What does this fold into?
Amino acid sequence: MLKNIVNGIKAYFGTFKLIAKLGLWKYFAIPILISVVTGLIFVALTYFFSDNLGQLIAKVWPWEWGAETFATISTYIGGLVILVLGLILYKHIVMALSAPFMSPVSEKVEAHLLGETGHKHRNTSFGQQLSRGIRINMRNLIREVLFMIPLLVLSFIPVIGIVGTVLIFLIQAYYVGFGNMDYTMERHFNYKESIQFVRKHRGTAIGNGIVFVLMLFIPIIGFIITLPISVVAASTETVKILDDKKLIANADPSENPKKIKE
It folds into this structure.
């Protein structure tokens, strides 16, 4: 898995050059707008509601001594909780709504890497791509939140909290990488087959997601460039895997395997 994580990260090298070469920036206008608006909304929510949540958390401290200190700490805890949950929601909202715009990007990357092939892709409409994006990201959102709740509690426990924080980061990376890879898989697999594929290549998803999550912490610019370059990186690596596994047919239509190989 470690090798696949590294490959997922290395796929980011050269993405800006590839985007410029294929003229892909025009496809990112609406997704970037969605990303910036959604990101600013969640930053505002973190700023305005961290105090309120902190006050609720502070009420669990029943003693007079240390109450003021605990209240201050609770404000930061409240901000952290809102930030983490907001980041989870942000990722899935942006990826779901951007699906119809990212699929053509992934298709152009595939055509650039492989040229003409005899592969018969799944033909889906704008609405079907949006519906699938929402379905995939709703599934991932629910699973991610279920993992996050106990890990957030563990993250506040000394020593153990370090492990909890690392796991929170890796889980977020996995599910965001999943979403980015699905823009390519949407043309090749149905819903269940895509889930099966990512499970077998979870390292690639984690590697892609690690860079995605880290870039989001770059003020303003993170909301602008993260989605475009992460989608191109995920598309590049996913197409390579599909080609290596012979899951994309060549000019001979007889070479078109129907199931995912190990």
Summary: Residues 251-262 have pLDDT under 50 and may be disordered.
